[in-house]
């Protein structure tokens, strides 16, 4: 029986609806049983194509490796011989001139990605081998006349016949880089005894400073932006000296905080005192406590140099005083100074950083809003990144080189799952793996391989196992992986953050060996395999090698795509001989653009 409430709406009597509901429940159960019988007896008739396809794909995945159709990639246009996708001068006009941010990374959208092979320049030759390459390279490999004409009087380089020669000069060291570094070592004794191992050179020229330091046991990342005429980073890598494209502008450099033992600027034209000293704040972030910042050029030694700088002595004095004031406010102290070189040291004690917490202090101490190591498309903040634990990051706390290479850094405990035991296990594992690699690629350890990249390292174990070979390794840590790059730097190695869904910050044909360990297993859900391999082809030198250590599921698919890039590959067992993981040894062939007369070799 129905009733009405005070608004006139009917109210269902609960007792009266109990029986109909029970009857309805019995009817529905019987009907569903009937339908189930129909579908089970006539499953072929009612199965949808979508479901069938999904089941078949799942079954195939469990049975065997990933299979893809063969493909042949075409050649890019000849004018793309120096194509750098994320620092492409053709795209600069789309971005602002403010703080030269147009020179930062601006990668093309997916629909603009190139699916072609970047050709070498006309007349390209296999690079001159190390150590001879430090002093000379083939002109046709880096055919830039502008830098030769503009910098020949400063002895950066000079062209003789088919070669560029590198006398070792520079704007601030016309007498040669060796005498310049000798003076620097007198000012910083730690450069002689293994205390200083890693360095960064901002505005590196042709990387003569970094090249000279290699002979002194110091590993330098030479940094310079992409430009239309100088190609500083390309010259550096052609010489066999570590370098990467980059600029201190609006985004943090792709390095962890408190990592470099030394930073250097030799008249690098960075306006250190402008924008509130924000460029100095980034140098402060990446320099470890107790580390050194070295500056030569304006305004250092302005008393004797101002006439050659098209300025007045008063202006240069003002600039120097402003620079000193900014550095002091950021917890630097003037460490030493002589002639054209001034050295500041980043303080290790906490007393200075505590003062930055006072109100109205500039620059202030950064709050905890941004991780100190966050450095992939992370804006530079106008504040001081204060070290959280000076003891474990300070230069004086680290063992000297080479002892620090195989000593577990304290920062390994900051990594999820990291420990001294995990570090030592990784170190031992890579010694065994590299021994196996040398059997598979006998060129490792010879002058045929100089520039090496570990595309997805953990603690730098691959690089550590190769330190006795005449090569250097750029260790890459994925921006989506646990942050282990600080550990890499603490053990005296170099590296960078990167996302392999994008192009790397380097020129084409700059690495002799690329190594990856399970990269496609880890990143294939984000990054399309085809584009990662095309990027590997872009940065690999002709006749260069790729060691691709992958799960058996991906190996055949990688080999198929590699064949389409004119690579020769063979599949090998790992040192353990297990079936679930294999190694592809690939070599890139030397070929020329179809518009050139030379044929593939």
TrEMBL record:
Mode of membrane association: Single-pass type II membrane protein
A GO BP entry: methylation
Superkingdom: Eukaryota
One GO molecular-function entry: methyltransferase activity
Record-annotated membrane-spanning stretches: 21-39
Keywords: Glycoprotein, Membrane, Methyltransferase, Signal-anchor, Transferase, Transmembrane, Transmembrane helix
Entry-linked Pfam families: Methyltransf_29
Subcellular location: Endomembrane system; Membrane
Protein name per Swiss-Prot or TrEMBL: Methyltransferase
Organism of origin: Buddleja alternifolia
